[in-house]
Amino acid sequence: MGASSGDQGLQDFPAGIQVGDVLGGTVAEVTRTGGLTVTLDGFAARPVGTVSSQDIHWAWNRPPVVDVGHRITAQVIAVDPDEGEVRLAMTATRHPELWAFLAAREPDEILSGTVTAIERFGVFVALDEGPAHPVFPGVGFISMAELSWRRVESVTDVVLIGQPVSCEFLQFDTWNGEARLSLKATQPDPFDALDDSIATDGRRFRGVVTKRLSFGVVVRIADGVEGLIPLRPVPEDEVAENRGAEVSAEEGDEVTVVVTAFDRARRRVTLRAASSDGSAHHAAP
């Protein structure tokens, strides 16, 4: 039995539509997660377009009401040939200038701007170039992890509102309509100043305890570089004088340590505390 014209249309559908195309259609269903299925113009056999909830509007906490039967216009952002479906973004057509600006950015590109807001989850940046954001105080956004190579206790130790910044572009966040930025990528990585041989040559460092954890002691051995002295449980039958040799330093105390493992790729440094005679030992619980 031959395929009907409708089936053939669905079979040919993915090959006829490409990422970047702007399509119109009618909402066929609002899903439980707040997304949409869409019957696209020219493909009436079944709803083949999908819009996830985060791609309807960048103001995710107060999205516009879109009901069954509403007409929409959206841009194709992915094509699934196996399912004969396309993923659509209404955000691309609601704010075409901003979408086009962000889509044109390249990884490692340097973008400049001004810090406009500081939140507990990161920093908003108003970019010097490109359109403004329709919802947020800046198109650029720096997460806490991308502010500095060093431990950040307070964001204001790194940036202040009104401060000009130059950052590396990481990616286009299509959910929020943001340019995800990295401030630390424009600064020297302190790990680059360390040689891999520090884990084998017995080199000693004078460091400062920055934190005591249930599994060990964190020590800053260089500006922006911290290592861990792992916790070694002390057996109950161990004599008191041996326990006294363990690390009992508190936050802010200076200690001498030896590097026992250095993993540059994972940015991990493992330490042992060195006693005054040059020997090394683990942290005490």
In short:
The protein folds into 3 domains: 5-94, Beta Barrel (OB fold (Dihydrolipoamide Acetyltransferase, E2P)), CATH 2.40.50; 97-186, OB fold (Dihydrolipoamide Acetyltransferase, E2P), CATH 2.40.50; 190-281, OB fold (Dihydrolipoamide Acetyltransferase, E2P) (Beta Barrel).
Query: What's the arrangement of strands in the largest beta sheet?
Result: 13-12-11-14-15-16
- How far the N terminus sits from the C terminus, by CA atoms, comes to 76 Å
- CATH homology group of the largest domain: Nucleic acid-binding proteins
Radius of gyration: 28 Å
- Annotation field: number of helices: 4
Determine the strand fraction and express it as a percent band. 35-45%
Reading off the top of the CATH hierarchy, the class of the largest domain is best stated as Mainly Beta
**Low-confidence parts, pLDDT < 50 over ≥5 residues?**
1-6, 238-245, 277-285
Shape: elongated
pLDDT averaged over residues: 83
Annotated CATH architecture of the largest domain: Beta Barrel
Q: Can you describe this structure?
A:
This protein has 285 residues and is mainly β. The protein has three domains: 5-94, Nucleic acid-binding proteins (OB fold (Dihydrolipoamide Acetyltransferase, E2P), Beta Barrel); 97-186, OB fold (Dihydrolipoamide Acetyltransferase, E2P); 190-281, Nucleic acid-binding proteins (OB fold (Dihydrolipoamide Acetyltransferase, E2P), Beta Barrel), CATH 2.40.50.140. The chain has helices at 5-16, 90-94, 96-103, 240-244; strands spanning 22-30, 36-40, 49-51, 71-80, 85-89, 110-119, 122-127, 140-143, 164-173, 178-182, 204-213, 216-222, 225-230, 254-263, 268-274, 280-281. It has a six-stranded antiparallel sheet with strand order 13-12-11-14-15-16, with no helix packed on it. The chain is elongated, with a radius of gyration of 28 Å. Residues 1-6, 238-245 and 277-285 have low confidence and may be disordered.
